[in-house]
Amino acid sequence: MSKRPKDNTVGPWAKEKLDALGAYLNYYTRRLKNQGHWLKGTVFLDAFAGPGLSPVRTQEAPATKGGLFGDDAEAEKVQVEFLKGSPRVALDIANPFTSYIFIDMDPERAADLHALEVEYGASRRIIVVEADANAAIEAWVAGGVDWRHHRAVAFLDPFGMQVPWSTIEKLAATRAIEVIINFPLGMAIQRLLVRSGEIPEGWQMSLNTFFGSPDWRELAYEEKNDLFGGKVTKVHDSSARLLEWYRGRLRKAFGHVSTARLIRNTRGNPLYYLIWAGPHRAGLTGAEHILSKGERVRNSPA
């Protein structure tokens, strides 16, 4: 299971994810801007918020040596690029949410998030929660919000499999919250699905908790008979099977689910999919428009 880098760096591919997030949040708040007296407030919840700014990981170019004037010292300098993290992306949209909840259990990152309260001042209502994301979400959902008159978007972007299915179910049960999920198929899930099928018990428990069911094994593995008897092997299209199964479970929980947009690293290896799920078809319309622009798995019929 992946962990957030200690130096808070992100890969250059994070920009694609954050651009998609910003585009959807703009669509969402514009859509709800003139809903009349029934809507009392909108909330953006960032479950793994991180800092407001993150340096982008880049490869240093080698210094030029042996030139006419000796080594090129300027070539040794690395230009550092910073990317607005999801908290700033959400705070900077044209029609802001009524309130923002940023969750991070790391004290240093939480301090960075508290600094945003000062920077944005009274123009944004910011709540920083220094806690485990799943516990914080459970407390928020059960904390007395009148979901008949409030709407929310939850951004679930962990560095691994830290969002169990039980958390997804709690969010879906409100019938008022939409989610944008990082489905970590390449960066976490497939790393646990060893080719032989002999998965350590702890890994199996992690997969059961994440998916909310042990049925992932039936999708990822099959038993074949050869001269030496039965043998369990990993199926060649396990990624596609697991992705579609997960999307189907999201559709059943929320009502609607989007195209899954694939995010790759700079080497072209698949990392994760961005998936939207929510209770309203109008949200699906916007999510489809945005997430279908990248590399994707097309929506299948309900």
Structure description:
Strands 1, 4, 5, 6, 7, 10, 11, 12 and 13 form a nine-stranded mixed sheet that branches. A two-stranded antiparallel sheet has the order 2-3. The model is unreliable at 60-79 and 298-302 (pLDDT under 50). It has helices at 14-32, 86-91, 107-120, 133-141, 165-173, 185-192, 201-211, 216-220, 238-254, 281-291, and strands at residues 41-46, 53-55, 82-84, 99-103, 126-129, 150-156, 177-183, 221-226, 229-234, 256-257, 260-264, 270-278, 296-297. The chain has 302 residues and is of the alpha/beta class. Helix 1 packs antiparallel against helix 10 (281-291).
Please describe the topology of this protein.
Blueprint: H1 14-32, E1 41-46, E2 53-55, E3 82-84, H2 86-91, E4 99-103, H3 107-120, E5 126-129, H4 133-141, E6 150-156, H5 165-173, E7 177-183, H6 185-192, H7 201-211, H8 216-220, E8 221-226, E9 229-234, H9 238-254, E10 256-257, E11 260-264, E12 270-278, H10 281-291, E13 296-297
Parallel strand pairs: 1-4, 1-6, 4-5, 6-7
Antiparallel strand pairs: 2-3, 7-12, 8-9, 10-12, 11-12, 11-13
Helix pairs in contact: 1-10
Summary, kept brief:
With 302 residues, this protein is α/β, with parallel strands linked by helices. 36% of the residues lie in helices and 22% in strands. Strands 1, 4, 5, 6, 7, 10, 11, 12 and 13 form a nine-stranded mixed β-sheet that branches. It has a two-stranded antiparallel ribbon with strand order 2-3.
Identify the notable features of this structure and list them briefly.
Rossmann fold, disordered C terminus, 9-stranded mixed sheet, two-stranded antiparallel ribbon
